[in-house]
Amino acid sequence: MILEFKSKIGREANTLIYDISMTISNEIQVYKNKPEKKVLISIDSDFENNSVYESSIKMNLHTGTHIDMPLHVTKSGSTSDEFNLESCLGDAIVLDFSSLEDHVSKQDLEHYTILKNDFVLLKTKNSLSEEFIPNFIYLDESGSVYLKDLKINGVGTDGLGIERSQVGHPTHHHLLDNGIHILEGLRLKEVPEGRYELLCLPLKIKGVEALPARVYLRTK
Known about the structure:
7-stranded mixed beta barrel, mainly beta, Glucose Oxidase, domain 1, single chain
């Protein structure tokens, strides 16, 4: 979804806001199409008798657009209790890797100017499908080490996982163990490559290893 409005803070041109979050529904794609990860949204109240509608939702916290916490891959890792909202607000760069067929590596990333404290968003062909892609494009270990050394704030991906087929989850560890956020499940199909302001607003849930989030990009 793209929103457009006239800025009230002095920008001369219209500002575009891209909603890059997945829509949560009973039909949303889930990791590896696992039945236990399927979303269930149900209406609990009887309108005819109670004059109100009330719904409930059951979903895995790694379904849809979400932020991983270190506890996700490390037994003693920190949880959402230590999450700092300000760390997911600020400068972001969208890198278009739609032509890649398997993974994003250090060699691919070296073509771009990535700055310290950037939030790097990887746009791939994952964004073109509303169905789960088993061989989704991922960030390999070399790419995660390269980004770690650049001291970025976070990495976002349009896959439901940031890595696959890597024993021991090295991409997760190189990032999360060094205070670098992982944001998964983005929708970047309509977003051109370039620099943006990131607005990532997760739910406030205590003591968990992932937080569902609504995420926007605003043109600079």
